[in-house]
Amino acid sequence: MADNLRSQSKLKEMALIVQKFGGTSVANPDRIKNVATRVAKYHAAGDQVVVVVSAMSGVTDGLIKMAKEIMPLPNEREMDMLLATGEQTTIALMAIALHALKVPAVSMTGAQAGIVTDGVHTKAKIQNITPKQVRSLLNQGNVVIVAGFQGQTHEGQITTLGRGGSDLTGIALAAALKADLCQIYTDVDGVYTADPRIVPGAQKLNEISYDEMLELASLGAKVMQSRSVEFAKKFGVVFEVRSSLNDNPGTIVKEETRSMEGVVIRGVSLDKNQAKITLISVPDRPGVAAAVFKAIADANINVDIIVQNVSHQTDAPSTDISFTVDKPDLLKANKVIESLKESIGYRAVTTNEKIGKVSIVGVGMRSHPGVAAKMFETLARESINIDMISTSEIKVSVVIDLAKGEQAMRAVHEAFLGK
Ligand code: ADP
Ligand code: ASP
Ligand code: MG
Questions:
Q1: Strand pairing partners for 391?
Q2: Alpha carbon of 110 to those of 76, 97, 224, 232: distances in Å?
């Protein structure tokens, strides 16, 4: 079997391997059987295999939709109780598929695998992992199948790790078990210069640095959950993103190497999952921004871009503050802002869900000036108006009209990465 990381690192013959399979890779019984066949080959070769699976594709979204049909802002503890069932279905089916191939296999929930999290329901953070039971089942010759995306607090409450959180389960288990190999199987051949479903000319990358992958992921390239990349960087987990549908070598994600700096732009991403909130006519005095963003942070809502205008009137100075949050947090954020109306005294609030954020990412940007200007020129040529801008050392992001998001992404990709 073509094994990119294995051949690169001259891996020992028998290894401990963590393999994570996403929703589309386990979408139906046939796909599950296909995964089981792949896992069985590694097991037959003498490897110890831990399989992490997501819910079957569409299941998590379906569960969320049902809950929201009952009430728009459901209790978050109950949401975790509900969503954890998705992955629990897949682990059992995967164990059954392996049994059908005569491979000994045992399924485990996140809690049984020793994944302990904090109590922030729907986006819990892993506090520690004690995979004692996983190890002993592996040593007895089993394939161990762990439910992705879920954990348990010290008090025994079921939690989930944020959307796409099975990636995190895979990487965190690889770190805790000191795995020799960590493979993230998905429905594309690896990490591309842009989402290949939107940009037909996107190219597959052989390797990418943690920092670039982290930026791309947090800027909307959902091929990896950004928190999982953060975790991999922190614990030095080298991993490969590859397809569950073929044996092509994937993309290796690892620490930056010298040769990576030669490339100015590694990739382009589009985030359609952001919403903008604007507070109109906020009194321009010390403490106002602090009050707004403390209340938002206390509600565990992540804020991305913040823009505050200059205030003009000098008698009673006031200003507008705009910021973006993840769309699923919009309702909650709005509630928080409403509760501040009396104490802060702004005139009105507006929200806009029809925004898209286009970003370019590359470590080479540090040493190549003019990148932002080229991006803005490209958008101007397409008559696309820029609403907000944010930059860091290795990225430039712009917020634009959602309807023009894909057009912008293709144009920017062509300008920087076109052949
Ligand atoms: P899984 O169910 O395996 O976790 P996801 O749907 O979460 O898979 O992520 C895979 C998808 O990510 C791909 O189908 C692709 O459309 C999308 N994607 C977005 N940006 C990129 C990128 N830069 N490279 C590869 N895939 C990308
Ligand atoms: N099932 C979860 C989700 O859809 C976790 C995952 O797929 O990684 O977000
Ligand atoms: Mg995913």
A1: 396
A2: 18, 20, 19, 19
User: pLDDT tens digit string along 7-31?
Assistant: 665 566 689 999 999 999 999 999 9
Q: Tell me the two tokens of residue 323.
A: 């910021």
Tell which atom from ligand 2 comes closest to the C-alpha of 225.
8
- Predicted confidence (pLDDT) at residue 368 exceeds the cutoff of 90: no
Question: Tokens 């705009």 map to which residue?
Answer: 322
At residue 257, the pLDDT reads 86
Domain boundaries, the chain: 2-187
What CA–CA distance (Å, rounded) separates 302 from 289?
15
Binned at pLDDT 50, 70 and 90, residue 125 comes out as: very high
The pLDDT value recorded for residue 316 is: 77
Q: Given the CA of residue 167, which atom of ligand 2 is nearest to it? A: 8
240 neighbors 185 (Cβ within 8 angstroms): no
| Helix, strand and coil percent figures for the chain, each rounded to 5 | 40, 25, 35
Give dist(CA 224, CA 54) in Å, integer. 13
Q: What is the CATH number of domain 2-187?
A: 3.40.1160.10
Q: Kindly identify the ligand whose nearest atom is closest to the C-alpha of 169.
A: 2
For 260, phi then psi, to 5°, come to -70, -25
Please give the pLDDT value at position 369: 84
| Ligand 3 centre distance from Cα of residue 127 (Å) | 21
**Structure confidence by residue, pLDDT tens digits, 190-221:** 999 999 999 999 999 999 999 999 999 999 99
Q: What is the pLDDT of residue 366?
A: 85
| Interatomic CA distance for residues 100 and 32, integer angstroms | 12
CA of 225 to the centre of ligand 3 (A): 6
Distance CA 129, CA 151 (A): 10
pLDDT value at position 300? 94
The two structure tokens encoding residue 256? 């930056």
If one residue of 166, 187, 326 were mutated to test the ligand 2 pocket, choosing by the most ligand atoms within 8 A of its CB, it would be 166
